[in-house]
Amino acid sequence: xxxxxxxxxxxxxxxxxxxxxxxxxxxxxxxxxxxxxxxxxxxxxxxxxxxxxxxxxxxxxxxxxxxxxxxxxxxxxxxxxxxxxxxxxxxxxxxxxxxxxxxxxxxxxxxxxxxxxxxxxxxxxxxxxxxxxxxxxxxxxxxxxxxxxxxxxxxxxxxxxxxxxxxxxxxxxxxxxxxxxxxxxxxxxxxxxxxxxxxxxxxxxxxxxxxxxxxxxxxxxxxxxxxxxxxxxxxxxxxxxxxxxxxxxxxxxxxxxxxxxxxxxxxxxxxxxxxxxxxxxxxxxxxxxxxxxxxxxxxxxxxxxxxxxxxxxxxxxxxxxxxxxxxxxxxxxxxxxxxxxxxxxxxxxxxxxxxxxxxxxxxxxxxxxxxxxxxxxxxxxxxxxxxxxxxxxxxxxxxxxxxxxxxxxxxxxxxxxxxxxxxxxxxxxxxxxxxxxxxxxxxxxxxxxxxxxx
Length: 454
What we know:
Layout: E1 2-10, H1 51-63, E2 67-68, E3 75-79, E4 89-93, E5 97-102, E6 105-114, E7 118-120, E8 125-127, E9 134-140, H2 147-164, E10 174-180, E11 187-192, H3 195-214, E12 222-227, E13 232-238, E14 248-249, H4 260-269, H5 274-285, H6 289-295, H7 299-309, H8 314-331, H9 336-339, H10 343-354, H11 360-369, H12 377-384, H13 392-405, H14 407-414, H15 419-431, H16 438-453
Parallel strand pairs: 11-12
Antiparallel strand pairs: 1-9, 1-10, 2-5, 3-4, 3-14, 5-6, 6-9, 7-8, 10-11, 12-13
Helix pairs in contact: 2-3, 5-6, 6-8, 7-8, 7-10, 10-11, 13-15, 13-16, 14-15, 15-16
């Protein structure tokens, strides 16, 4: 299998690519964020291209390891007839960046184009609020050899786009998925709007083409649609070639040049890409790659990790932030930035754990109180009565009491039901008000039960 992708994602700008209309199309009344320019009315001329969108495209191209086109760049008209395109053509730039790489997948080119409107064929309606919003298009070489590798690439790409701060992420993604098997022709699956959809469409299309080839039937070069509700692809039309779009330079837009000084300024101030940050975390902090990938899943989480790791053992920090911070944030349906958990709070909490002034269980309970809470962990621990770790003899006393009070659970343990041990540990934690170490309590319970068995 060979797979190449053409990924389109909206740029995060307040105005459209060639006019001043607002880009907040989801909440707006249909056809309210429009003007003569983005409706392509007779005599209306486009404004010069949105400078913020151009700089964002250069930044994303650099983060993908692309070379920036040194020659004059200009917009072309790509002609096709569809209800969501009021002009009969789409403005799209020649490549701004080229010859990049993301984790072994070559990036052929990066360019800008304008978003069409939203057409609803079942209702015969078009909403042009989206028309003219700047899109970044990223075209790969056919370097992916399985649905799994395509899914992995898209996840990495979305992280790069989110890190850039210039694009809106998976929620606005539309991908054209190109797939062929050895001995067959290429099919293009249009407008797949999620990573899951890209994976499912490739799985289906791979099987479909393989079955045709096995039966000696030619695989047509065609454009297909992905029906997400049924997880299948269906024919749309024979595949267009570039000449079918009758590209011409747009005479209403000026040519552009990415000056070297401007490119270097963007390079200097752009964030470190997620995939490069992941490799650096592994090397610099000596943490496992899976820890590093979780920590770099959000730029704010990655920045917080580095701040905390400058004061607390990085390996200890990585484990807690990967497991407990992500658990609590996910449970509250927030991302790390929205949780408002601060590096200062994490430093204090982790130092309390390392100094054994609180138990692991107490640390987990305190962590659950941190989202949207400006109080420091020491204050939370004091309020909840979690400060302090019980002594060995107090744990032993609690264990003996729990064994005596729970004969059914003890009997279950002797009969091979190991889950009853978790119940007994929970009871010890209750008696000690969460101040016993669960692992230590588990060990003592096993020792006491072994004595009883003898």
